Every structure is written in structure tokens, then in C-alpha cells.
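Translate sequence into C-alpha cells.
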Amino acid sequence: MMTKTIKVNEETHKRLQEAGSKGETFQDVINKILDKAERTDDLEYDLELLKDLEQAEEDAKNGKLIECTLEELEKEIKE
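Result follows.
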């Protein structure tokens, strides 16, 4: 596997050391941080989607939804 060198200042180096557990490499720590960031983005998307679905359910109960065909919807999206 090819490796790359990155430069970080002393404070960032210290933070990476503190974020890791014994035996973890900086690569392990960085990947752990990136994985967590991706999961956070996914969670934020899921929460927004859930909010939208709850609003749609409420709108349906209140008769605020409009029926349309897939073709009509695709046309509306393109405009």
C-alpha cells in the first residue's frame, strides 16, 4: 500500500495522540474520526428525512397533499 506524508502542527499532533487508544496508529485514529463524521452526516440526513416524512403524514391527515402521476412529478421537477 502506498503511503503519504501529511504535515500537522504540534497541537493537532497532540489531539490525534489523545484521540487514539493504545496501539492505534494515526491512520487508525484519522479513519475513526472520518467514519464518525460520515455517520454523523448520515444521521443528520436521516433525521431531516424523518422530519419531512412526519410533516407529510401530518399534511395527509389535514388533507393538504396533492395527488399527481409520476410523469407530472418528473415534469414539475425538471421545470
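Note: The chain has a mean pLDDT of 90.
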